[in-house]
């Protein structure tokens, strides 16, 4: 019987252990909590996924933007040759709009075509017109009208346009302030100056002498042969920088600074940084390089 009670006690202990084991199953709710905790992880995972989607959406959009840039980058890379052209292009492109309105030299393309037969006789390029060399009788020429109404000998128009285009590309804004005058217009200018000097107290003769110092007597002005231009700067730009550019570059287009400061004794005309005369590229290059005036180049010094 004792053995049975011992075994019975052992069984009771086992039962108690089993029961106690059931008691220790309290953590099972915890294990249930774990799965509960999982959802938040999943949800947080989803949230991260949700945040990610917009992120990738943004990053995608951002990537799509950089992507084209990458596509564009290779494009310029391929266009490395045109690239320098584009650098020049903007320079021209920016200037163009500004001068577009008052752009002086831009006539109809029809007239330049008429200039083609002219090159036969080029003596006109070096015609000398000054106080001692009046315009030959019957001298005539055909003019091309610039956009601002001024006219020039049609034969110089292409070079004039090229010079202005290149000047603008260099940031210079030349403007034709005066070009071709008729004899009547030249006379009107002379009369105006004479009247001004008379009004200041000079006699008629004194006034005429003074006026001749500044204004060419009709028939002796280069402005009457369509080859001379008085060039100033566009409204907002600097005339001195414009004149400097023209003096340095005009020869390439066949123009010369006609009345330099150190040649007034020879030309009989005071320094006129704005007055440019077409003589053709060959003569212009030589004249400007040597620092001559037209009279010196032609060996036609005044007889003093
Ligand atoms: Zn002039």
Describe this structure in words.
This protein has 304 residues and is an alpha+beta fold. The protein has 2 domains: 2-72; 103-181 and 221-298, Muramoyl-pentapeptide Carboxypeptidase, domain 2, CATH 3.30.1380. The protein has 15 helices and 6 strands. It has helices at 2-23, 27-51, 54-64, 66-72, 74-78, 82-93, 97-100, 110-114, 157-169, 183-199, 204-214, 239-249, 264-267, 281-290, 294-298, and strands at 143-145, 151-153, 174-178, 228-233, 255-257, 275-278. The strands form 2 sheets. A 4-stranded antiparallel β-sheet has the order 3-4-6-5. A hairpin with a 5-residue loop joins strand 1 (143-145) and strand 2 (151-153). Helix 10 (183-199) packs across helix 11. The chain is globular and about 50 Å long. It starts with a helix and ends in a 6-residue tail after the last helix. The model is unreliable at 10-104 and 107-112 (pLDDT under 50). The protein binds zinc ion. Zinc ion (ZN) binds at residues 178, 223, 228, 230, 272, 275.
